[in-house]
Amino acid sequence: MTKPPYARGAPGAMYAGLALTALATIAPYIDRSTTHLLAHHIRAGYPTYPLARVDSAAITYLVVLSVIGALGVLAWLTTAWAVKAGKPWARPTATVMFMIGTSVGLTGLLTKDTSGETGLPPALGWAGMIPCLAGLIMVALLWRRPRLT
Q1: What pLDDT, in 10s, does the model give residues 2-15?
Q2: CA-based angle 78:128:24, to the nearest 5?
Q3: Cα–Cα dist 139/64, whole Å
Q4: Using CA atoms, how far apart are residues 18 and 74, in angstroms rounded to an integer?
Q5: pTM, full prediction
Q6: Residue 21, Cβ density class (10 Å: 0-12 exposed, 13-18 middle, ≥19 buried)
């Protein structure tokens, strides 16, 4: 089967998005074993929390971010398969996945918790937004008009 005309260049952006999503998913684990940025952020927002509660909150964030990351990886793989297979629903589905991913990323970046600070430290929030750049490129490539040659 030949590649649909709208798929030129889009798989590359999709695989870049997949890789960026995987990196964003493991970033909190790297932080937990090195800088403890998430734990320090929680501690700064809730200075009266005992260390065990800060650790529990950090682990909860790790679980939530892992689930979000796994769903993101699944979305990238499914969308890439649909585009490569030339499925008629590939472009609208890719666009919806981009909108959902961007919404989830912005939620992680901007949502404030009861302390008045964002739930995630800015570095981890922005790490969750980076795959959205690949998603934007992917959507632009999927919806561009084919060249007339």
Answers
A1: 566 566 778 899 99
A2: 75
A3: 26
A4: 9
A5: 0.89
A6: buried
